[in-house]
Design brief:
heterotetramer; A mainly alpha (473); B mainly alpha (305); C mainly alpha (215); D mainly alpha (662); B: 305 residues; mainly alpha; 13 helices; 71% helix; globular; C: 215 residues; 8 helices
Chain lengths: 473, 305, 215, 662
């Protein structure tokens, strides 16, 4: 019955195309709420799928699903307020696409078959393209072009990767369904060479989507061009979906005894991404791009942790969850900033603390959370990853990692303080609406709570998800 | 009981010795010079007078003389004058004494700055500057003594024939120490070639300019204080140059007084034959004392090993 | 013994070279169509037992790859009246030379891989690789967006070749995926392209394509 | 929340106090509508919390033993806390100073327009207190780091309390970056421990290999040193402390930077580094920061900056004591070890007392005159008798003069160092340098504080602001008096405090049987006697003075201008000129840059003079870290300038490169 979760938003999305803006909004929030409810139920009952060959509830999938639906609900609420101010011509189309986007992403989290997951991820690209194009300006058009093109090429690689994995089955005449769960069990019998090749293509392919350097290039433009709720979705959720693909493939590799191979590659990409982020954060001029690069950084951190295994893997999952929460809240806040200052330039902003205290709190708290300060979860995640790195004896890697983290923090701090405290006289365009504040607060509070107390079910799920990589304690 | 018997006369005789310096200088100048008891007359005169206080001053101005005098007096209590046992003595009293003198200096400077006079500030700056190097020297010397004796009290260094012990172990290098300490004496007590108490131009003074505004009994205290301070250093030097214990306190005392006369005379001679250094030269001069002490320490270590 | 397939595939290789060398869009599209036809019929010639499902898929693919897409793009060019010139970033001679190198390299590389059903054909893997990399080369070496789409399709052909011919029990889901990919990909790209054309009347198509934005 | 309680319920008193403090912190913003009420509630609740904590810590210190707690954290981890004598000692200091500065804050934060911000200030202040307490109580890696980061965080916000001025923002930025990088170093040090022990606790960290120990110690020394303000990692300190409101500067400079010292102590304890190299590192670092700190202090024109640099100096002294202790351990001299460590710990307490006293004094001056620039003040002692006097006492204490507390700790460190002088090799050389260093520091500190008291509080006012200053605000005077009293108290009767310190170092497990305390008691006793003697003499002289001045006419007139008849306040010796000659001696380490237009013509127009002492650490830190890093990353920026063809190339490149690894 799990299919319902992506069917409902799909239908709702199609429906929304034919609705007026007002009712479309209602549909949006309603669907979000329903979806959230359903995914909670899914956690409780964990039902089977109608097409078990294609769909299955996995631990990693459940985690992402919960994050997705929580985020979507809050973002949809924010959007209703956002749309009041930032006028969009075809609002029902916008909302409809958002719902389709949700359905495709839900599909990613639930799909177990390699090809189905690939199709789902491809679908996310297609669904999100119109969202990025929302404003219809030449710039947004260019961005959309870049996004679709680079991602398609990447995804094509992933496709080839999937094919190669099927080849690795052929090579050793392994006869099981092409599902992650099945392959993970028989991983030992797969042909290592084709498997490695497959992993590489899948990593590069999904890595492009996930925003690992050097394939991250579409990400900054997209996140800065898209309307803030969309950027929040992209950064908070879409990246996780792509990561899910890599994560599951990596699991197969580990089971096949190729964990070192895939792990090292993951770590390498992680480090490169963090360094790349550092490079562009230091002298960044636009705050939305800044946040985008910080997403790249966090994806790097997550990849690094996953590659490490052990404590690192556990930390990586924590980072994954908390990054989604905090980063999406930051993007929503950036929406407030954009609407109130009317510019993406950091230069044009300032004295947020004076002009919009509530937004400032959300913004600065988010900044602190994202740069790994308690009481937010990324702190503990990074802590575990770094300790894990030392534990695994990867001292040099850890050194570079820490160095880049510090650099990024320094750069980010400069910009954050500029935005929050620098002098700024010009009047503010909007007043702080409740609906544009408390979704962020909810997200941040969730992160804060989760960094001190994790429900047992959640904890067990996380541990089960990473147990293959020797995760947990 | 002996400590008191020694201590009281020591204090009382402190104002006497500076007269020697004046005499010697006068002699060199081919003059008769003031009477030997001149300083006593001065003190008496000052104690009789009243005082004029600057409107700028606060209670610190009055506190200064008292504290500096008390510091000097207390310091003397720890010193085995003429090798006799001191009034007090405890582990590390050396440090206490040095820092006590520091306290005295603090208040002298504070009192000077209290008057808001640019000249006194100038003097104060110098008074704050040069002793820093002196302290380094002094500590260097005491490190050496500690290596030699393993004790850290003035008594253990200068009581009875302990100085002799120092000479025995350290030998020639101790001569350096004596020189170094003599330089310290000149600096700490504002004598030529560091400072010229007899000069006329306030711009070139250190100690004298700092006390310009003091008058009457307060000024008397200051004078007394500086006499005691000089006495303190001179007494130490005397113990170093005449390290013997003649058995009987009286004889010791006699010998001690003789040596003291000689030391003060030496100071007088120096004041007569040397000119005051330019201010920016003074640090170099004082640093030589540190160098001496340092060399002495390093050399002696060879023997002590 | 040289397999029949190899003969066809060698033509495909030639078509790659040709596409590298052709200075005009039409030529490129023709080459593309040819590739599309070939890659979609190759499965017939490889000695698998052919299920009717397989046949169905192959025919649809033939339809889409060999006819629909090229035709659509041809029409598109007519509509937007794009300049016929390709404006290469890497010159034609250079491209051809690269193409030759590429094929040689592909040959060399494919020696190292042991293909499950290698018995059938020698050129299969090299062609696939050449298509793949050649497609990417076009992506990088030609400035026009339309050319980039063509390159993308070439790449897809390569993937399709691998996907259909090497996995013996052809997973229809795989083929379906590939189909969806090329279809959806090309469609949405074309749509965007159209928009670009409309938006940027001023500079014409090219401006939208060597777009340089901040990092 | 399973708290394994060790000794009765007074362990929970600790957490109770923290809860109370937290409560106070949260109440403040709630009541921010009613300004005075809010301040009352906040101050009272927080003070109550501090007192409770003080009592608890004190009793723990007296009863000794170690109290452990563990709280389950994130299902698999745990937050462990352990309060042994060392922690208790630091806790006592923290709570005492915080208590005083809270009282002070009641009248210091008197701007009713900023009610809300002030309430937030109280909240953050409470967070700072809690985190500091938890840092010194932390019993495992995670607990430590969480508290540590929260401490940095809250103090950062307190530094930028007045964010309107760009200097403060700059200061906060600098401070935050430093503390984060420091935290990262600490984290990696801990990570290395975990790598070898496989535990999040600090237990059996001593089993590390020597190389690993060295690495851990260096990392943690850098990390903790940057918090404590060890040269050359101190450069955030003279910016951050002046920026913060004075009661916060008092706490930051008084106790917060001591958490760095605590960290070094703790690492030493858990690693059991009984080889000379560590002692040598610490001692040398101490000497350098001690001397340079005071030299730079001498060159400052801003009162709070000057005090901040003195924190660097005193941290240096503390480290010297620690280093001497370590050397004592490594060379098998228990007495020397105890002297060194005890002196160091006692100086922690002493410095926190007189430094916070001085900052409060500076705060009073700042609030009443509106400036903290030394050379425009003057003559304040007449207007602010209590402030001036307490400040004077603080100055005497910080200059290490008897009979005040600064002298006591320096005295003990001296004794330890002298114990080291009889040894050979490195220990001898370093101890010798230590002693001379201390002597020089003492002299310089004296010079520096005669400058401060002389120029700020004595002489004639140099500006209007200084002329009509006053000292209203009882709440600000009371803590200053308390602290000044403490200075004298410890200075005159040091015995209990030294014993406290010695008890504090019990938990360093130096691998020696507890050595008899008689010796130390004897020393303190004789110190007390000596001081009493001195006081007796002073009294005697005073009596004599009274006697001499009976029925005498004392007249008042203007200062004798040496023939110059029309003196003005402008003619007074300024702080800059006072320090100039000494600074010239230290030119190599403290380059001085001067700006003043040359005087020309017979009737030259008004001119001015401005001098600035450069902190070489600041200079080189910039050239050696910031600029290279920036350059490196700027070089990397070409990789993404927006050409989509290039981007496709990256994807291809990634694949081709990876394929080589198959």
């Amino acid at each position: 019955m799990v299919e319902i979760l992506f069917l409902i938003p799909f239908l709702a999305g199609v429906l929304a195309f034919f609705l007026t803006a007002k009712s479309a909004r209602k549909t949006l929030v309603a669907t979000g709420a329903l979806h959230f409810l359903l995914s909670i139920l899914l956690w409780v009952y964990q039902p089977g799928a109608i097409i078990p060959a294609y769909f299955k509830t996995t631990h990693s999938g459940l985690l992402s699903l919960l994050v997705i639906s929580l985020l979507f609900l809050l973002i949809s609420i924010y959007s209703t307020a956002y749309l009041d101010i930032d006028h969009i011509k075809k609002e029902n189309v916008f909302i409809g696409t958002m719902l389709l986007f949700l359905s495709t992403m839900t599909m990613v989290t639930l799909s177990d078959h390699i090809m189905v997951m690939w199709i789902a991820i491809e679908a996310t690209t297609l669904a999100s393209a119109p969202l990025i194009y929302t404003h219809g300006t030449p710039a947004s058009l260019e961005t959309t072009w870049k996004y679709v093109f680079i991602c398609s090429v990447g995804i094509a690689m992933a496709l080839l990767g999937s094919v190669l994995i099927s080849l690795s089955m052929e090579a050793n005449k392994v006869d099981v369904p092409m599902s992650f769960s099945a392959l993970a069990t028989v991983a030992k019998n797969l042909d290592p060479m084709w498997l490695k090749a497959g992993f590489i293509f899948i990593l590069v392919g999904y890595g492009t989507k996930m925003g690992l350097a050097p394939m991250h290039t579409w990400l900054p433009d997209t996140h800065s061009e898209a309307p803030s709720p969309v950027s929040a979705l992209l950064s908070g959720v879409l990246l996780n979906c792509a990561y899910l693909g890599i994560f599951k493939t990596h699991k197969i590799m580990v089971n096949a005894g190729l964990g070192d191979f895939s792990g090292t590659i993951l770590m390498a990409f992680g480090i490169i991404s963090v360094l790349a982020a550092a490079t562009f954060i230091l002298r960044q001029t636009e705050y939305k791009r800044l946040l985008a690069y910080s997403s790249i950084e966090n994806m790097g951190i997550i990849a690094f942790g996953t590659g490490l295994g052990g404590l690192g893997a556990y930390g990586a999952i924590l980072c994954l969850i908390h990054h989604s929460l905090i980063k999406s809240s930051l993007f929503l806040t950036s929406g407030n900033i954009l609407l109130s200052y009317g510019s993406r330039q950091i230069e044009k902003t300032g004295n947020l603390a004076g002009h919009m205290p509530k937004t400032f709190v959300a913004f600065f708290a988010g900044f602190l959370g994202i740069s790994g300060f308690p009481p937010f979860g990324i702190f503990i995640g990074e802590l575990l990853i770094i300790i894990g790195a030392f534990q695994a004896g990867r001292t040099v890697w850890a050194g570079i990692f820490i160095f880049s983290l510090c650099t990024i923090f320094a750069g980010f701090l400069n910009h954050a303080m500029k935005i929050s405290f620098d002098d700024h006289q010009a009047p503010i365009k909007i007043t702080e609406k409740a609906r544009m504040i408390w979704p962020q607060y909810v997200l941040l509070t969730t992160s804060a709570v989760l960094s001190f107390w994790i429900p047992d079910a959640l904890y067990r799920t996380i541990v089960n998800a990473v147990v293959a990589f020797g995760g947990g304690f | 009981m002996t400590p008191i018997i020694i201590f009281i006369p020591a204090i009382l005789s402190a104002p006497f010795f500076p007269a020697i310096i004046l005499k010697v200088k006068a002699f060199f100048g081919g003059k008769k010079g003031p009477p030997l008891l001149i300083q006593y007359y001065t003190l008496a005169k000052l104690f009789k007078k009243g005082s004029v206080y600057s409107t700028s001053t606060t209670y610190i101005f009055k506190l200064g003389p008292m504290v500096s005098l008390s510091a000097a007096l207390t310091a003397l209590m720890f010193l085995p004058i003429s090798g006799a046992a001191p009034l007090f003595s405890f582990k590390g009293d050396v440090l206490f004494v040095l820092y006590l003198l520091g306290l005295g200096r603090f208040f002298t400077i504070a009192a000077a700055l209290d008057t808001a006079s640019p000249f006194e500030g100038m003097g104060a700056a110098r008074e704050a500057y040069f002793p820093i190097i002196c302290e380094a020297t002094t500590f260097m010397i005491f490190i050496l003594f500690y290596r030699l004796t393993g004790e850290l009290t003035l008594a253990s260094f200068f009581y009875g024939n302990h100085p002799l012990e120092l000479w025995r172990v350290a030998g020639a290098p101790l001569a350096f120490v004596v020189t170094a300490f003599f330089i310290v004496l000149l600096t700490e007590n504002a004598r030529v070639p560091v400072d010229d108490p007899a000069t006329h131009l306030e711009l070139t003074m250190i100690h004298e300019v700092m006390v310009l505004d003091h008058s009457g009994p307060d000024f008397g205290f200051i004078e007394m204080g500086s006499f005691c301070k000089l006495f303190f250093y001179a007494a130490i030097v005397s113990r170093l140059v005449f390290p013997f214990d003649l058995g009987h306190p009286a004889m010791n005392l006699a010998a001690f007084s003789l040596i003291m006369l000689l030391i003060y005379a030496a100071v007088g001679v120096i004041e007569s034959v040397m000119a005051r250094y330019r201010m920016d030269r003074v640090p170099k001069f004082v640093l030589t004392s540190f160098a001496l002490a340092f060399v002495a320490t390093i050399i002696t270590l060879e023997f002590v090993k | 013994m040289t397999h029949l397939v190899d003969i066809i595939l060698s033509f495909v290789l030639l078509s790659i070279i040709f596409s590298f060398g052709s200075s005009r869009l039409q030529g490129l599209i023709k080459a593309l169509a040819f590739q599309g036809v070939v890659v979609s019929i190759v499965p017939f010639f490889i000695g698998h037992d052919i299920t009717e499902g397989g046949v169905l898929f192959s025919l649809t693919t033939l339809l889409i790859r060999g006819i629909a897409i090229p035709f659509y793009i041809y029409r598109f060019i007519e509509k937007v009246a794009a300049h016929r010139e390709l404006e290469p970033i890497i010159g034609y001679n250079g491209s051809i030379f690269t193409g030759l190198l590429l094929i040689v390299a592909a040959m060399a590389v494919s020696r190292k891989f042991s293909v499950p059903s290698a018995s059938t054909s020698l050129l299969l893997l090299p062609t696939a690789i050449s298509l793949l990399v050649g497609g990417m080369f076009l992506l990088m070496a030609r400035r026009k967006a339309i050319t980039m789409i063509l390159g993308y399709i070439t790449m897809e052909n390569g993937i399709y070749l691998v996907g259909t011919t090497f996995s013996v029990r052809a997973h229809h889901i795989v083929e379906f995926g590939i189909l969806l990919d090329v279809l959806a990909g090309v469609m949405i790209m074309a749509v965007i392209l159209q928009n670009i054309k409309l938006k940027m009347q001023s500079g014409g198509e090219d401006t939208s394509l060597n777009i340089i934005s901040k990092e | 929340m399973n708290s394994t309680r060790a000794k009765g319920m007074n362990m929970d008193l600790f957490f109770l106090s923290l809860v109370l403090i937290l409560l106070g912190g949260t109440l403040a913003p709630i009541f921010n509508r009613r300004f005075t009420l809010m301040k009352l509630i906040a101050v009272i609740t927080l003070c109550a919390g501090c007192l409770l904590g003080l009592v608890d810590a004190g009793s723990k210190l007296i009863h000794g033993g170690s109290y452990r707690y563990a709280f389950a954290y994130l299902n698999a981890l745990s937050l462990e806390f352990q309060i042994d004598a060392l922690s208790a000692f630091f806790l006592t200091t923290i709570f005492f100073i915080c208590f005083c500065s809270l009282i002070y804050s009641f009248h210091y934060l008197n701007n009713a327009e900023k009610a809300f911000r002030i309430s937030v200030n109280y909240m953050l202040f409470s967070l700072l207190m809690i985190s500091m307490a938890l840092v010194v109580a932390a019993g495992n890696i995670i607990a430590f780091l969480v508290s540590w980061e929260i401490m940095s965080l809250s103090s950062f916000f307190l530094v930028i309390y007045n964010y309107a001025s760009s200097e403060n923002r700059q200061a906060g930025r600098l401070y935050f970056i430093f503390s984060h990088v420091g935290a990262m170093f600490i984290l990696s040090a801990f990570a290395i421990i975990y790598q070898h022990t496989g535990k999040f606790g600090f237990i059996d960290a001593a089993s590390l290999s020597h190389g690993a120990k060295l690495l851990v110690f260096i990392f943690s020394f850098i990390g903790f040193g940057s918090k404590a303000g060890v040269f050359p990692l101190h450069i955030w300190l003279p910016h951050a402390h002046p920026a913060a409101p004075s009661h916060i500067s008092a706490v930051m400079s008084g106790v917060m930077i001591k958490t760095g010292i605590y960290g070094i102590f703790r690492m030493y304890a858990i690693l059991e580094l009984h080889t000379p190299v560590f002692g040598s590192i610490v001692l040398s670092a101490g000497i350098v920061s001690g001397i340079l700190g005071v030299v730079y202090a001498l060159g400052q024109h801003d009162l709070k900056r000057l005090l901040a640099y003195h924190s660097v100096e005193n941290i240096g002294i503390i480290l010297m004591g620690m280093g001497i202790g370590m050397l004592g351990v490594s060379s098998g001299k228990p007495v020397m070890a105890v002297l060194g460590f005890a002196g160091s710990l006692l100086h922690v307490l002493n410095h926190s007392i007189f430094k916070s006293l001085l900052f409060m004094g500076a705060g009073m001056v700042l609030q009443k005159t509106g400036t903290s620039s030394i050379d425009v003040l003057g003559g304040l002692l007449k207007k602010m008798r209590i402030t001036g006097t307490t400040f004077l006492i603080g100055s005497l204490a910080i200059a290490g003069l008897p009979p005040f507390n600064g002298f006591i700790s320096e005295f003990i460190i001296y004794l330890g160092a002298f114990k080291g002088v009889v040894l050979t090799g490195m220990t001898f050389v370093l101890s010798l340098l230590g002693i001379v260093g201390l002597a020089v520091i003492g002299g310089l500190a004296l010079a520096c504080f005669t400058k401060v008291t002389g120029v700020v509080f004595q002489g004639e006012p140099r500006s209007r602001a200084a002329e009509n200053a006053d000292e209203k605000g009882v709440a600000m005077l009371v803590p200053m008096v308390i602290l000044a009293g403490a200075c004298v108290m410890i200075g005159v009767y040091p015995e209990p405090f030294i014993l406290m310190a010695i008890r504090g170092i019990d938990s360093l497990n130096l691998g020696y049987a507890v050595i008899p305390l008689e010796g130390f008691v004897a020393i303190t006793g004789s110190l007390t006697r000596a001081v009493t003697a001195f006081f007796a003499v002073v009294l005697g002289i005073f009596a004599l003075r009274v006697f001499l001045y009976r029925d005498k006419i004392t007249t008042r007139s203007s200062t004798w201008g040496c023939g110059f008849t029309r003196p003005t306040a402008k003619m007074q010796y300024t702080g800059s000129s006072y320090a100039a000659s000494i600074l010239s001696f230290f030119k190599p380490v403290a380059p001085l840059s001067e700006h003043h237009p040359r005087i020309k013509g017979i009737f030259p127009e008004e001119t001015h003079y401005f001098s600035h002492v450069h902190d070489i650490a600041e200079r080189y830190m910039k050239n050696l870290t910031v600029i290279p890093v920036m350059a490196l990353f700027d070089k990397l920026r070409w990789i993404q300038y927006g050409d989509i063809h290039l981007y496709i190339g990256y994807i291809l490149l990634a694949i081709i490169v990876l394929l080589f690894f198959i």
